[in-house]
């Protein structure tokens, strides 16, 4: 039993570890040119070097700030608009068609326009991330509110809840699982947007670091940048997981594990 | 302690329906219905599925408005929700994101946790106060729903087949519990049920709804505590059943 448990914890890491080992061996024996893929140890070394010079942290910080602002603004607007359209028939009639139309424009297609509007400054990137995260948060908030259980709302009315109490005690908690799913999607789109935006026009950030390294053929830095993106994505996902675990304890699907 | 929290209500509600009618599109569910209920009585409403029992209860609770006629609480026309009436539905309708105790506290101000706990004690579930509703059994959920209704000291309790989904044993337990609490507190009770034996076991008066009207209105004059195999109970049950069955659809 104990052995099985130990195995369960480690099992997921066996394959990645094997892949990294194979990779290291392949580069070591020159089966693979280090121009194409540098040895894992080289990547670690360049990470240490970049971290020591402060370049790495500065670039991560620049990316994180963009991501954060974009998420805050786009997610905030999406959340509020989702609430509004979910709760008010009038607002829904006025706004939902427009929002659905905006959705059909792939936000990355706006990059040329955004560069004309904002140049290569921060605003353009934040704007793109805002657009990217807006829709998943909007759609899932709206859906969550719309699908709240009419039986529970009726019960709340019989038990004398006022409109605010109906919202805060019945409608919103019921919509929360859906809203968090929206946040999850939004985080994925947030990094994706940032990756594209930063490789096209920037003077800082992880994407800039990667593009800059490409010009000097520093493959190790390019791979490092990719890994950092993956790590940040994982971190964001873990954050939502934690949030779900905290606020959805009542939900049979999110029981403490 | 529990009996203190849910005290005997001196002013139970007198309910009166006058020429009440309700239509859904072309379908007249209730027509010209008159009903007078003395304060503190336990009335059971039986009838075929779809005959309008739930509709009637919704009109009485104020969740819906009649198209014609009016509902009176103590002689006053009743239009708004929350006039001292509480409803227990067929499903428990507990909020899954609130602990059991907080479910019972619903619509109660925060300082009244003690009363909610007393109500839970009353239905024998104080041990589950800190659980999520999802871990309760169906019968336990209905008991929590009962506690939630009782904590408001309703003057009128409307029960829409609250025991319909329970197994036979749990049903009988719940019937006893409801009767006991009703005897202690004496609210006016209106129970919709499809189980005629249940109606005869619990009610002072059984009303048969048919064709949008009251088809039969019998007083059940059996002493309490009641026994199901009392010959008079069986006789009454049989009479009501025959009346339901002999009606052409
Ligand atoms: N909101 C509504 N819109 C349209 N028709 C309705 C509505 N509510 C009820 N009805 C109709 O009114 C009739 C009576 O419904 P009701 O729910 O009162 O029946 P019931 O006696 O409670 O039946 P059951 O024993 O199956 O619960 C049914 O034919 C139903 O289809
Ligand atoms: Mg019904």
UniProtKB/TrEMBL annotation, chain A:
Tell me, what's a Pfam family for it? BPD_transp_1
Residue stretches making up the ABC transmembrane type-1 domain: 60-240
Q: Identify the CDD domains for this entry.
A: TM_PBP2
- Places the protein is found: Cell membrane
Topology versus the membrane = Multi-pass membrane protein
- Kindly state which keywords UniProt assigns to this record, in alphabetical order: Cell membrane, Membrane, Transmembrane, Transmembrane helix, Transport
Q: Which InterPro entries match?
A: MetI-like, MetI-like_sf
Q: Which domain of life does this protein belong to?
A: Bacteria
Q: Transmembrane segments in this chain: where?
A: 67-84, 104-120, 189-209, 221-243
Per the similarity annotation, which family is this? Answer: Belongs to the binding-protein-dependent transport system permease family.
What is the recorded name of this protein? ABC transporter permease subunit
The opening ranks of the lineage are: Bacteria, Pseudomonadati, Pseudomonadota, Gammaproteobacteria, Methylococcales
Automatic annotation (TrEMBL), chain B:
One GO molecular function term of this record is:
ATP binding
Q: Which CDD domains match?
A: ABC_NrtD_SsuB_transporters
Q: Does the keyword GTP-binding apply?
A: no
Keywords (A to Z) from UniProt: ATP-binding, Cell membrane, Membrane, Nucleotide-binding, Translocase, Transport
Record has Cell membrane as a keyword: yes
Q: Name one Pfam family in it.
A: ABC_tran
What protein name is recorded for this chain? ATP-binding cassette domain-containing protein
Q: What is the species of this protein?
A: Candidatus Methylobacter oryzae
């Amino acid at each position: 039993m104990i052995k099985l448990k130990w195995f369960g914890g480690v099992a997921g890491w066996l394959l990645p570890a094997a892949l990294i080992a194979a990779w290291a061996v392949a580069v070591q024996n020159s089966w693979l040119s280090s121009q194409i893929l540098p040895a894992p140890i080289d990547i670690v070394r360049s990470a240490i070097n970049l971290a020591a010079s402060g370049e790495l942290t500065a670039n991560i910080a620049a990316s994180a700030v963009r991501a954060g602002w974009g998420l805050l603004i786009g997610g905030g607007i999406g959340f509020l608009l989702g609430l509004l359209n979910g709760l008010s028939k009038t607002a829904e009639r006025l706004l939902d068609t427009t929002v659905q139309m905006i959705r059909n424009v792939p936000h990355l297609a706006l990059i040329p326009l955004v560069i004309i509007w904002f140049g290569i400054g921060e605003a353009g990137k934040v704007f793109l991330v805002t657009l990217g995260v807006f829709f998943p948060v909007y759609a899932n908030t709206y859906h969550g509110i719309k699908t709240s259980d009419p039986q529970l709302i009726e019960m709340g009315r019989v038990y004398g809840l006022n409109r605010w109490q109906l919202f805060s005690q019945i409608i919103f908690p019921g919509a929360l699982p859906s809203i968090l799913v929206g946040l999850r999607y939004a985080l994925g789109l947030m990094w994706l947007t940032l990756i594209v935006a930063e490789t096209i026009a920037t003077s800082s950030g992880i994407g800039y670091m990667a593009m800059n390294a490409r010009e000097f053929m520093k493959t190790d830095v390019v791979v490092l940048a990719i890994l950092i993106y993956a790590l940040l994505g994982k971190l964001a996902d873990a954050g939502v997981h934690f949030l779900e675990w905290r606020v959805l304890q009542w939900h049979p699907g999110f029981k403490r594990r | 302690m529990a009996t203190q929290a849910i005290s005997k209500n001196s002013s139970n509600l007198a309910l009166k329906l006058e020429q009440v009618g309700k239509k859904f599109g072309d379908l007249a569910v209730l027509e010209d219905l008159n009903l007078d209920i003395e304060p503190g009585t336990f009335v059971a409403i039986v009838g075929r599925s779809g005959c309008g029992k739930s509709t009637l209860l919704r009109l009485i609770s104020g969740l819906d408005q009649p198209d014609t006629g009016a509902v009176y609480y103590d002689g006053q026309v009743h239009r708004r929700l929350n006039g001292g009436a509480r409803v227990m539905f067929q499903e428990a309708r507990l909020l899954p994101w609130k602990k059991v105790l907080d479910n019972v506290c619903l619509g109660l101000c925060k300082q009244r946790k003690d009363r909610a706990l007393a109500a839970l004690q009353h239905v024998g579930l104080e041990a589950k106060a800190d659980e999520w509703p999802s871990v309760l059994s169906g019968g336990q959920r209905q008991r929590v729903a009962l506690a939630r209704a009782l904590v408001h000291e309703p003057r009128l309790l409307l029960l829409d087949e609250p025991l319909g989904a329970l197994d036979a044993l749990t049903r009988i337990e719940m019937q006893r519990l409801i009767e006991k609490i009703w005897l202690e507190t004496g609210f006016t009770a209106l129970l919709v049920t499809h189980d005629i034996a249940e109606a005869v076991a619990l009610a002072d008066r059984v009303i048969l709804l048919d064709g949008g009207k009251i088809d039969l209105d019998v007083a059940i004059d059996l002493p309490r505590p009641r026994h199901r195999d009392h010959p008079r109970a069986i006789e009454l049950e049989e009479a009501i059943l025959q009346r339901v069955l002999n009606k052409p659809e």
